[in-house]
Q: What sequence folds into this?
């Protein structure tokens, strides 16, 4: 199946048919031409990003996708997609999986098949130059906090935290400013338009390493309940179940933990892959 705008890894993984029910569904065309097409929005390091040295996409989600494809006997093909088009891309057949830091929410569960694979949690941080003014999370009451407008679960968590810790204490609510993505949020903060940024905990170790002495993290994640999930077309239960088996096998044999360690994400691990939010 030929599609444009595909990012194909140079490493060729031998393609073979697997046995049992999966092989039967393979032959029905659920996965075409021996390729596992994975929709991804590579602007969220260390989950997914364009490697400056190689020019290819890299990151935790990329390694997870490659391992899933390898264990299914398929060739991984990564299709660069805007975050807002990930779900529609699955529904229209542009890809077989979405692996791109997508939070498992009830609405997404209604629209896609989902397999949980890592946890997240919104975290506030500001510029180090603001550390004397913004010393704790409570100092953000009444301030402008930026974050991705597409991060539905993160926005909900920020609003809930603001009500419980600001409004209910008689303080002004946090003003959440939704922007295109986390890169835009950080840029706006550096330009003085926002006081702080709310971003998933999975990104912080990487961010602090890449830009040392730039940011000041304000406390622990405000919620540890967010779960990232791999998305599949609604009704594709066979592939969903195979992906779940692969993730659980990776957890059991240690390869999941190895990939987490590579990207400094051990604190985001799950005990087992499940399907519900």
A:
């Amino acid at each position: 199946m030929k599609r444009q705008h595909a990012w194909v890894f140079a490493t060729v993984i031998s393609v073979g048919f697997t046995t049992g029910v999966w092989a039967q569904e393979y032959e029905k065309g659920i996965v075409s031409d021996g390729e596992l097409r994975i929709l991804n929005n590579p602007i969220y390091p260390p989950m997914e990003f364009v490697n400056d040295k190689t020019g290819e996409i890299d990151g935790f989600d990329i390694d997870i996708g490659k391992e899933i494809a390898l264990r299914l006997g398929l060739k991984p093909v990564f299709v660069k997609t805007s975050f807002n088009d990930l779900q529609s891309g699955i529904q229209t057949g542009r890809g077989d999986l979405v692996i791109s830091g997508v939070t498992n929410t009830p609405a997404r569960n209604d629209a896609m098949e989902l397999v949980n694979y890592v946890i997240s949690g919104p975290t506030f941080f500001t510029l180090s130059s603001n550390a004397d003014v913004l010393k704790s999370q409570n100092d953000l009451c009444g301030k402008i906090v930026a974050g991705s407008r597409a991060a539905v679960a993160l926005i909900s968590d920020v609003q809930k935290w603001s009500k419980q810790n600001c409004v209910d204490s008689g303080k002004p609510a946090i003003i959440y400013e939704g922007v295109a993505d986390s890169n835009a949020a950080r840029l706006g903060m550096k330009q003085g338009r926002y006081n702080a940024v709310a971003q998933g905990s999975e990104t912080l170790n990487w961010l602090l390493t890449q830009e040392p002495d730039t940011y000041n993290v304000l406390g622990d994640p405000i919620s540890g309940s967010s779960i990232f999930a791999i998305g599949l077309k609604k009704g594709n239960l066979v592939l969903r179940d195979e992906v779940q088996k692969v993730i659980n096998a990776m957890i059991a044999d240690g390869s999941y933990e190895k990939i987490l360690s590579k990207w400094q994400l051990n604190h985001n691990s799950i005990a087992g892959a499940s399907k519900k939010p």
